[in-house]
């Protein structure tokens, strides 16, 4: 197997990709700056027979990033400063982390002769335009700074394929959830946040009327999309963008109800104002990924929720009164 680099290897999705690669016997280098990643996610990756070659590095440091790319053939670029509301509050920091970081990585990859990069793009790039399900051929209409940064990263990826021949593949994630998603930050993904709040007996707040929907996607499906995209032949994937989702839409009200049932939480949610920069709905057509590299999500919404709740219960058992 080629030498692989995972950026954001201590983060939610990055750590799962890294762990899966190591379990398959790959030689993996990982980098993280711990701005949103967690050291505890690294511990299992640094133990065991196939140990991660870990580099503490911030992608805003171009020289360190270039060094991390040396000798690498394939990169999974997961490092980012995620969250739509965080980018609304502080667009500058998001911009440098997401866009300058991605640019430095591309330049490092170019200098090192990296063959392929799989890039974590965002479904938020579709914005609020009419037309469901979302297809990759639709014109992007990002609203908040975060989707603009993620989309600009996609264009950079495409450029580096066309101009420099690096086989870049953009995977537009649709609300990935599951174990290891940070639950206790104001910018946490809704699923993780609601789970921990209910476990603590706190009433979650739904922004808006709760009828907004998302194509929530369990993390294992996203990991499989990454690995398949890395293995696919270049003529099927290079320079292209793919939705990574389940192809199902679930509202926040529905999500709240199922989580409440799983956690035996009996209070109603609090309804608050709509969040600035939010999109109303998302639902993906996943046929392009299916056709190009055989993507086939195996874990559905409810099964994903069950696994997620079981994990948080075990992980945060001592933290809950
Ligand atoms: C999420 C991801 C983003 C990714 C995008 C597309 C996170 C933090 N964000 O954005 O990185 O690019 O999907 O895959 O994982 N909500 C509440 N109450 C809360 C928190 C959220 O009602 O306490 C609502 C939000 O207003 C929104 C929905 O839940 O309508 C989803 O929010 P969030 O989990 O933050 O995800 P996205 O903004 O969709």
What would your notes on this structure say?
The chain is an alpha/beta fold and 321 residues long. Helix content is 43%, strand content 16%. It has helices spanning 12-23, 39-46, 62-69, 84-89, 91-112, 145-164, 190-199, 219-231, 234-237, 252-263, 287-293, 301-315, and strands at 3-7, 27-32, 53-56, 74-77, 116-122, 167-173, 176-177, 205-207, 213-214, 217-218, 240-244, 250-251, 270-272. The protein has a 7-stranded parallel sheet with strand order 3-2-1-4-5-6-11, with helices on both faces. The protein has a two-stranded parallel ribbon with strand order 7-10. A two-stranded parallel ribbon has the order 8-13. Helix 7 crosses helix 12. Uridine-diphosphate-N-acetylglucosamine (UD1) binds next to helix 7 and strand 8.
Bound heterogens, unique: uridine-diphosphate-N-acetylglucosamine
**Largest sheet properties:** 7 strands, parallel
Unreliable stretches:
none
Number of strands: 13
Q: Rg from C-alpha positions?
A: 19 Å
Q: What is the helical fraction, as a range of percent? A: 40-55%
Class by SSE composition: alpha/beta
Main-sheet strand order equals 3-2-1-4-5-6-11
The gross shape turns out to be globular
DSSP strand (E) fraction? 15-25%
Number of helices: 12
Q: N-to-C SSE series?
A: EHEHEHEHHEHEEHEEEHHEEHEHH
| Average pLDDT | 96
How many angstroms does the end-to-end distance come to?
47 Å
């Amino acid at each position: 197997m080629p030498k692989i680099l995972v950026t954001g290897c201590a983060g939610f999705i990055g750590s799962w990709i890294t762990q899966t690669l190591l379990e398959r016997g790959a030689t993996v280098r990982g980098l993280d700056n711990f701005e949103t990643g967690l050291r505890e996610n690294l511990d299992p990756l640094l133990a065991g027979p196939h140990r991660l070659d870990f580099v503490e590095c911030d992608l805003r440091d171009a020289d360190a990033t270039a060094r991390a790319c040396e000798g690498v053939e394939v990169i999974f670029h997961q490092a980012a400063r995620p969250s739509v509301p965080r980018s609304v509050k502080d667009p500058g920091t998001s911009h440098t982390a997401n866009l300058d970081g991605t640019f430095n990585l591309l330049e490092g990859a170019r200098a090192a002769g990296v063959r392929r990069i799989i890039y974590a793009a965002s479904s938020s790039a579709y914005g609020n335009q009419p037309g469901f399900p979302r297809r990759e051929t639709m014109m992007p209409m990002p609203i908040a700074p975060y989707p603009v940064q993620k989309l600009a990263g996609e264009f950079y990826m495409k450029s580096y394929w066309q101009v420099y021949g690096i086989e870049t593949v953009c995977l537009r994630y649709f609300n990935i959830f599951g174990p290891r998603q940070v639950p206790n930050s104001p910018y946490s993904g809704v699923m993780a946040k609601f789970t921990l709040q209910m476990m603590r007996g706190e009433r979650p707040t739904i922004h808006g009327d709760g009828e907004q929907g998302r194509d929530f996607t369990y993390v294992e499906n996203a990991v499989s999309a990454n690995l398949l995209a890395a293995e696919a032949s270049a003529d099927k994937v290079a320079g292209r963008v793919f939705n990574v989702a389940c192809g199902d839409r679930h509202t926040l009200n529905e999500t709240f109800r199922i989580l409440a049932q799983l956690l035996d939480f009996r209070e109603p949610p609090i309804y608050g104002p709509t969040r600035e920069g939010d999109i109303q709905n998302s639902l993906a057509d996943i046929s392009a990924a299916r056709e190009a590299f055989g993507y086939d999500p195996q874990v559905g919404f409810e099964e994903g929720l069950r696994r997620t709740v079981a994990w948080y219960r075990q992980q945060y058992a001592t933290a809950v009164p």
